[in-house]
Amino acid sequence: MIQAGCEGVIDYSTANLLDPRWWQKLWYVLEYLERQGKIKLDEYQFDFHRSAFDYQSEQTAADLHWNNAEQAHNRLIASVQPWTESGATSAAEAAAHLRQKWIDKWGDPSSPETKAKVQEIIDYWEEQRAKKRNARHGTRL
Questions:
Q1: 137 by DSSP, 3-state: which?
Q2: Are 45 and 72 in contact (CB under 8 A)?
Q3: Residue 55 has pLDDT above 60, yes or no
């Protein structure tokens, strides 16, 4: 939070602490800043290990730096492209992996139970949208 304020990303003088949207915006900004920090750290680690290669030294040192550079590179790729964490080699494999992750978290979208839950959420959102529209514009006859 301090970093976001210091960098001018969040203006705390205009904060409305009672507004849930402000807190949600703050959460998104802080998540973004944290992700950018992790990416920068992984880039630094990758650059360090890449620069430390000395192909004239013994093989175990080169292997150590190679493995560390590979791990930093994999973390960097996972941060920038999270859908590649499955090790998928094609778009179809990546899509199947993402679908499986969705099923693991929320349930199979083709099952009646999940369809009912999704429809319940959609109905709730539609109801809230109608309430907000009526509150802003008044009920129209």
A1: helix
A2: yes
A3: no
Nearest residue to 99 (alpha-carbon basis) of 80, 112, 114, 120: 114
d(CA 128, CA 120) in angstroms, rounded, equals: 12
Q: Examine the pLDDT at 57 and tell me if it is beyond 70.
A: no
The full set of domain ranges for the chain reads 1-80
Q: Are 29 and 54 in contact (CB under 8 A)?
A: no
Average pLDDT score over residue span 91-119: 83
Q: How far is CA 62 from the centre of its chain?
A: 33
pTM of this structure: 0.39
Strand residues in 8-97 grouped as ranges (E): none
Q: How far apart are CA 70 and CA 53, in angstroms?
A: 12
Say which DSSP state 10 is in.
S
Nearest-Å Rg of the Cα atoms of the chain is 24
